[in-house]
Amino acid sequence: MIExxxxxxxxxxxxxxxxxxxxVNLRIARGxxxxxxxxxxxxxxxxxxxxxxLDRPSTGRYLFEQHDVTALSDSEQAQVRRERIGFVFQFFxxxxxxxxxxxxxxxLVLSGVAPAQRHDKVQRTLQAYGLAERARHRPDQLxxxxxxxxxxxxxxxxxxxxLLADEPTGNLDRASGHEVVEILEQxxxxxxxxxxxxHDPELGMRARRRLRMVDGAIxxxxxxxx
Amino acid sequence: MTLHxxxxxxxxxxxxxxxxxxxxxxxxxIGVAAVVVLSALGEGARRYVINEFSSLGxxxxxxxxxxxxxxxxxxxxxxxxxxxxxxxxxxxLKRSRHVRLVAPINVGAATVSxxxxxxxxxxxxxxxxxxxxxxxxxxxxxxxxxxxxxHPQPVVxxxxxxxxxxxxxxxxxxxxxxxxxxxxHVIGVLQEQGQSLGMNTDDLAIIPVTAAQSLFNVTSLxxxxxxxxxxxxxxxxxxxxxxTLKARHDGEEDVTVITQDSILSTFxxxxxxxxxxxxxxxxxxxxxxxxxxxxVMLVAVAQRTAEIGLLKALGAPARVIQRLFLTEAALLSLxxxxxxxxxxxxxxxxxxxxxxxxxxxxxxxxxxxAVLVALGTGxxxxxxxxxxxxxxxxxxxxxxx
Lengths: 226, 401
Hints:
- The structure holds two protein chains of two kinds.
- Chain A contains seven helices and ten strands.
- By secondary structure, chain A is α/β, with parallel strands linked by helices.
- By secondary structure, chain B is an alpha+beta fold.
- Helices cover 54% and strands 18% of the residues of chain B.
């Protein structure tokens, strides 16, 4: 599903070159559940951004579903994100003026799906995440856990192959954090490839495969299935 | 993303920032309203002047003594003192099929009195033909009778205000009034007309032209008004007039013939240009509104950085994001223009109500231009913010919150 070959990411910070990623080689199989852990500045978010096609590696090759995506143009990469990849962020990133239902609908709107089809999908998604009662509420009228569920609904409504979560519980209390993790794991159980970046060792230990990063390199790769 | 979805998205975005949206709409509306009102003023002045000339008669030619044309070159060897226009000149002009009516007139000032009341009045010497040439309407009685010009009857037709000032509520018809040192029978009163080309017919006393000549002790005429038989006949009538008078004045072309068309088109051009100028000045405020839209859109892009990052993460290409912001700018411009048009039209109606004499009304081209310029500046100044939005790096945009 994902194959990274010799990925380097160099930032230019005030004239100095900073290696955010250093010779990263990684393969992630379809349906896998991977956690990426490590201290701040270890490059785990940068890695997640490159996997999610939000960022481009300075050198190296990235094969996504057997296709070289490093060579794609910006709008071609946008199409891959639109159709294959879902994102869940620490700060939810819901659009404040839109209702829960409208936030969930947004990827379908961007893809130009007809309103009638959109409506059915949105309703099913709201039901699935226990948000049916909250469909018309705006983000500021929702609790943190509800907001993250809306965000997950938005990420999954396009039925992506890959779900990327950056500190999905970082801004939640324990109970709703637990709820969110369970939803993500259920999605993984149904076949979505799940990659989670986290500080939280408890969350990280739940993944079947755990990566540890230090200074832009993967230093530990534990696969509990084998 | 379909057009409908884009419009809805842009609309919710605008509704989400009410103050900002309101201010931009206000700026745009003021600009458009300024164009509408100022061009309505200019157009009102233009129409006023055109109407004034039209009330003179439709196929009118005015013959003045003297040639007021500078030709340059050496000073003339023979004197060019113009001959006066005479009644016989006027009579001669009638002999053409291009000429329908000839109305010689004479103007002077004299004291008009009735009973103990005295008033300085403008006395116009005229003939029966003037009635048709000037499209007068009678309030009471009749106009000067047709008949031999050289044996005038001592009759007078009064303007409405002059009658009121001399007679008050008493009947004027049949009374005898004194003009200068002569007595005249009041046979008619003109309908109230108001101002017409700087001369108020309400203040006139109209007497037979020969009576006026002897009253003022002159043999000349002030003007000869000629009505051509049709619009097409204006040019041949003009040639006929010049040829006839030249022959009668010993081969010297010493009269000026003004056609109403030429006056009209000159004023039309001058006032049309004036209207365009004020509308253009007003359009500057539209450009200012455009700059404001750009400024506020840039702020919007900065404030909505995280949203733009999210849209990118959800797979919106740069092109779509650019279009979203341009749609917002276009919506703002169009809404602002609509509000401005409404304000402008309301102001125009108010002006028309306050000054009923002036036919205010923004011409269609000005309205169309205002809306197009509003949309144009909105889009043109929307491009920069939209491009900036579409070029944001999604990682950095999402990192901000």
